[in-house]
Amino acid sequence: MSFFSSSTPDSNLATAKAVLSTAASVAATAMVIRSVASEILPPEFISYVRDGLRSALSRFSSETTMVIEEFDGLVSNQIYEAAETYLGSKISPSTQRLKVTKPETEDTFILTMERNECLNDVFNGVKFNWVLVCRQVETRLFHNPRDMNSTLKSEVRSLELSFHKKHKDMVLNTYLPFILREAKSLKQETKALRIFTVDYQCMYGNPNDAWTGINLDHPSTFDTLAMERDVKEFVVRDLERFVARKEHYRKVGKAWKRGYLLYGPPGTGKSSLIAAMANYLRFDVYDLELTELQTNSDLRRLLIAMANRSILVVEDIDCTIEFHERRAEPTPFSSANNNDRQVNYCAFALPLSVKTINLVTLSGLLNFVDGLWSSCGDERIIVFTTNHKEKLDPALLRPGRMDVHIHMSYCTPCGFRQLSSNYLGLKEHDLFPQIEEEIQKTQVTPAEVAEQLLKSNDTETCLKQLIDFLREKKERQELEAKRKEQEAKDKEEQQKKELDDGGKGEGVDNDEKKSTTELNNTC
């Protein structure tokens, strides 16, 4: 019994040594063969043999692999970029290696897969395996002018997606489109918003250089706007409905855009509402100054250069541009037959009080907002602001151009409570009823109320100063109203007096004419 117990471990140890020795010999032989083959055989032949073996083995496998390369010829592969963004959000804590980047224009870190790393994803109960494959190439033999780093590296990247063969249709029709949508949403959520203005020196060159921008860090949100709650909720619902109705706009045959008119006194929060819309939708803002443009072609050029998912802002349109319908004055280039023709043109105030006829016409602006050129882009919002809605041409105000009209009113009790929450952190106070009563009697803007709330660090003092300010402002407004009323009365009496004097003068003239006639008859 002791003989067998001592001999069995010895025999097992000898067997293990033999197996390990054989495995080591095979591995060493394989390494030698691989190194010799790589030295003697051309890379093309090795790649051909490897692909052949892989193809032969795949015949007996139920797995399908899709290769998604970084570039499709000389252009970027949209699926690769989307998959890279999507997989960055799926990296698990167990991932051993990952890559972290931060573009200069972004606010957040971007996580992506490191080379040769694997990542598993589950979609609709189906498991998918992703691998980032990087292969080395000779830089002098591989150059992509669209990849600015291609001259600095000798690496070609691709993603390999493996899954069961029976799910091929689902991958093409459902999974990959889902990844494209998710990647688009992730980029919108994490990107740094930018505000652009026109670069007039580069406007006539490359269209991509027509706008120059910087990061937009405006803190305004719908939660902090000093507006009536129902108005804010209406705007949010309208924005959400707009961005979700791409197919609906295409179905009804309309360009995917939305026009807003914000009108009201200065200081009522029009610019803050625009910033809140941009922050909510994660849309970039394009600020257009119409007075600097010379022709309708400039409008079209700038429209083409705008990106999708953006907000175009034309502030104070009643002040920056005046459309007049007047008879065109004769010019050396116009014939006498055209002297009486009605034209629309823009008159701009220039130095030395000189008025020049600009070639940006009302019809050009209308075509820019709602014509054929307005369809050159998707998911765009156009916002006009004005302090005097009544000064705008009715053609601009109709639906399709300014679809939604939002009145930015003076401060209301609801707006005051929002400002108090923003600036003082107060939801309720004993002085609130008194302040709200004064606000209802006084025309005061949210900007004026906000300024008063900044004047003291003590809450009680701040609110009392606001009450005094509201009372003083109400008194000034009452005095101003009385002054205007008296001026109107004086003007009316003056006009009545002039009419009376004119009637008496006419009677004297008639008597003189009658006397002269009688004298002539007598003679």
Write structural notes for this entry:
Its cofactor is Mg(2+). It comes from Vigna mungo (Black gram). Pfam families: AAA, AAA_assoc, AAA_lid_At3g28540. Residues 478-523 are annotated as: Disordered. By secondary structure, the protein is α/β, with parallel strands linked by helices. The protein has helices at 2-40, 43-58, 78-88, 168-190, 229-243, 246-252, 270-281, 296-305, 317-320, 362-370, 394-397, 413-424, 432-441, 446-453, 459-522, and strands at 63-69, 71-72, 75-76, 98-101, 110-113, 118-123, 126-136, 155-164, 194-198, 211-215, 257-263, 284-287, 310-314, 323-327, 342-349, 355-358, 380-386, 404-407. A hairpin with a 5-residue loop joins strand 15 and strand 16 (355-358). The protein is elongated and about 135 Å long. Mean pLDDT is 79; it is low at 1-5, 324-357 and 516-523.
